[in-house]
Amino acid sequence: MGRGKKIVDIELVIDEAIALIEEGGVEEFSTRRLASRLGISAMTLYNYYENRGAILKGAFEKGSSMLWSGLQEEIEARRAPGDNGHGAFQALSEHLLAFATTRPKLCHFILTVGAGEDWAVRDGWLDTFDTPQGLPPGGGRHGAAKAARKRAVYLFELIIYALALKVIGGAESPERYRDLAAEGLDRLLESREDG
């Protein structure tokens, strides 16, 4: 079974790992299945990756990149000056829902494996959200506005991630996701204006 074979394109390993996750979920992912799919032995696979975890880490990183691809442009298209970031939050919510419904097992993997990640900071799109009361982003007295914006994005992420997992699991419909995400956003923005 391909003992002497070498992997010509190392990126192919991650692409095939993602394909396996999309077919059966991370629970059914194994290095043995991946090696078989690649036409190599499991030992050959370990020449390129230390263990299963290293492969899954690569799949997570590429999957995350796939998930957030195009979000920046969607936020920019919906953003209205001085609108308290409502359009940006909506773009984030709709973007996640679209991915969750088209690639549910990959989305589930990304959201559950990456539960400890700070997406907004890591992916650098936090600054595309408008600052409260039109204040410019930055340090000093405006640093508090940036911290409040970061917290609002984080709280909204928690809401939509949980809702996306419910949609993937069949406990919520996409329509209900939209309703609950909109309600969560309204309450979040109300509390920001009050606070």
Mean pLDDT across the residues is 83
Q: State which percent range the strand residues make up.
A: under 5%
Low-confidence stretches: 130-138
The number of E-state strands comes to 0
Number of domains: 2
Q: What is the helix tally?
A: 10
Q: Mind summarizing the main beta sheet?
A: none
* Structural class by secondary-structure content: mainly alpha
Radius of gyration: 20 Å
Q: Shape from CA axes?
A: elongated
In sequence order, what are the helices and strands, one letter per element?
HHHHHHHHHH
Question: Percent of residues in helical segments?
Answer: 55-70%
Give the CA-CA distance, first to last residue. Answer: 64 Å
What does this structure look like?
With about 200 residues, the protein is an all-alpha fold. The protein folds into two domains: about 10-65, Arc Repressor Mutant, subunit A (Orthogonal Bundle); about 70-195. Helix content is about 70%, strand content about 0%. The protein is built from ten helices and no strands. The chain has helices at about 10-25, 30-40, 40-45, 50-70, 70-80, 85-100, 105-115, 120-125, 145-170, 175-195. The longest helix has 27 residues, at about 145-170.
